[in-house]
Every structure is written in C-alpha cells, then in structure tokens.
Amino acid sequence: MTTQDTLLLLEERVSRDAVRAGVNLGLMGHRSPRTSNSMQQKQYHLEVKDARSKLSLKKEIPGHFAVQPSQGEPGEDDYIIDPEREPNLTNLTSEYDLKLFREAQAAAGEQLENELKALPPSRGVKCIEMGRFEMNVWYQSPYPDEYIRLPKLYICEFCLKYMKCRTVLRRHMSKCVWRHPPGDEIYRKDKISVWEVNGETHKPYCQNLCLLAKFFLDHKTLYFEVEPFLFYIMTVADSEGCHPVGYFSKEKNSFLNYNVSCILTLPPYQRQGYGRLLIDFSYLLTRAEGKIGSPEKPLSDLGLISYRAYWKDVLLEKLCSHQGREISIKDLSQELGIHSYDIVSTLQAMGMMKYWKGRHIILKKLNVLEEFQERAKKRGKDFRHTDFACLRWRPFQPNQDSA
C-alpha cells in the first residue's frame, strides 16, 4: 500500500465520520425519540442497511497480507489473512461492518500513538549491535551510567567489550586480536565449538558476558561475582572467527549437583536448535563426570518449556529403543544423567506415569511413542545433537582454580 493509498483511505474515513456525526447530531436535536426521522437520516439508514446486506468477499487487505506466490503473477488464492492482525471474516460479515472495524482500529492506533507521544522519553538501552546483528533488548542491564543512558550499545562479539558508538567499535575491531572466547576449547563438531571459561581466570570477560545476558534474562541477578562459576560458551565458526551463539554457567562445586545455573541463547540464534544443544551439552558433561544433574531451581517460564521439551525427547527416545518389559526410574536417571524428580515430573506431564500400590509405574503409551517416532523421522540430517567422541574435557578440580 502506497502513501497515496493511505492518504485516500484517511480522507475517506474522515468524510464518513463527518456524515456520521451530522446524522447523530440530527437525532440528538429531537426532543422525543418518537419524532420521525428526517429524509437525510432515512436515506442514511437505508444505505447502511443495504451495505450490511452484502457479505464480505475479499480475501485480503491490499498490500498487507500478500504472501509470495508459488509461480508467476500473484493470483486470488495467493493471498491469506494474517490472524495476528485481523481474523478471517470472509463471508462472515458485511463490507460495511468490516470497513467500520478497520476504521475503529485505525482510530484506536492514532489515539494510542498520540498518548505515547505525550509521555516523557524513556531512558535506557533499546538495542545493541553485536557482530552482524542488531538485537532489541528485553530488559535493562546494570552497565555503567554513561552507557546505560544511551539508546544503543555497541559490543565486540569476541571480547564482549562495550562501546558508545560505531566508530569506536570499528577502531576496536581493527585492533582486537581475539577471534574466539578465552579459555579452553573442549568440544568441536563441524563448525560448532564449546569453550570452558573460568570465572576467576577471565573475570572481565565473564562479567561482560553476564551483563550482556541480563538484557535477555529477567531473573538474572549475578553480574560481578563470577569467580565461583564456570562458563561454557557455544560458538559457530566461519572465516572471521568463532561467533557466540549462547552459553550456560554452573557452579564449580554445587552442593545440590546443579549442572546449570544460568543458560541463554542469543535472539538471532533462537528457534534453531541451539538452546536444546546447550541443554544436551550440559547433560553430556554431567554424564562424563559420572553424576546426576539438574538445572538450578526455580526455572523461568521459558526455561521450564525448553527443559521439559528436552526431557520429553530423550525419555521418549529411550523408551522407544528399550526392548525389555521393565525399566526403573533409577536406571533412566543414571543412564541419562537426569535427576529422578525431573523424569517423574515429565512423565506425569505426558500422562505416562501412574502411582499404584506404593510404586511409580511407567505407562508405555503407543500413540505417544508412535507420534514421537514420526516426528523424529522428519528431523533430517540437520538435527543438532552432541557427540561424546568430540568432547575433550576433564572435570574441574579445586586445585585448578589458580591455574
């Protein structure tokens, strides 16, 4: 839709509002509701009645809901209604009411825009530029005052130093010798690597990583006391270097055997399997240590959804491959490295756990297992998973803290 089309629609809406206002004013002028309407009002009512008798046959709003046609010029069937912007009202309402609905939407949008303009400008970072991506932030992070007042921050994707403008970032990138996170590369498969970074050995880098994570995690409270933690940064390599995808952290010595304290996938890499890969890698380290782990509780809403999806996948995969008639929660926990509480809660959420005669019994629902097998077949070769053979890692020992 061009600017000229928008202006024509606006003029049409203003003129109809004027006609509507004149009719309403005529109605309000009568002292008694029984008084007959004027000829102008009768004609207007007839026009409205006639317009409402014609159902809407349009399948799109021009310029708004067009999708890419399969071949050649777009046809009538190449347009769909976007349900997030407007429900599909084809053959359900009249053209008059549909136009009235869109006019009310436009008027409400104008009113909201005017109200927002009247508010004082809010301070705080709105977006960050990091590498080739520009990301809108979700929350505010406690950067120094002279930085947090800026609308945009510029961050080096390799050393995570933050700057005030693109010119400073460009000069920094010409001098920055880092092309990957500090610490040890403990995992590499194809272009994906994982680096283990000690919070005490590389304190500034880990602090900057926590400050960056706070832009996208509401519940994160740790920013500067990074010494008791290990950080595992996942990267994707190309000719320019290793670009960070996400990370998770965990305590060096967790009394409750938490294998994750904080986990984040950066927005440009979300919904691509990297979050699940980070969770899978945390359990890979847990199994390599010969332990049983669990993420630090309580989980956020998004964290619970991600972990529950992962637990569901690995449990169903194990149950599909299990040949025997009996299997215990303890065996599953030791083999997968997942805490028994997380296994029980996931099975209960799927309706595959029953408490009978003082024991928990796993119900092998064939429809659930068959649905998982069908979904697994469609994943293809691009499905991301960890490989124990690609791991080069030794569990952290307290005497390594000063190394």
Roughly what is the average pLDDT, rounded to an integer?
83
Helix content: 25-40%
**C-alpha Rg (nearest Å):** 30 Å
β-strand number: 13
Please identify the structural class as seen in this structure.
alpha+beta
Distance between the termini: 63 Å
- Count up the helices: 11
Strand order across the biggest sheet? 5-6-7-8-10
Q: What labels would you give this structure?
A:
403 residues; four-stranded mixed sheet; 11 helices; 16% strand; extended
Layout of SSEs?
Blueprint: H1 3-29, H2 39-52, H3 95-118, E1 127-130, E2 133-136, H4 145-148, E3 152-155, E4 162-163, H5 166-175, E5 184-189, E6 192-198, H6 203-214, E7 229-238, E8 241-251, E9 258-260, E10 262-265, H7 274-289, E11 294-295, H8 301-321, H9 329-336, H10 340-349, E12 353-356, E13 359-362, H11 366-377
Parallel strand pairs: 1-3, 9-11
Antiparallel strand pairs: 1-2, 3-4, 5-6, 6-7, 7-8, 8-10, 12-13
Helix pairs in contact: 7-8, 8-10, 8-11
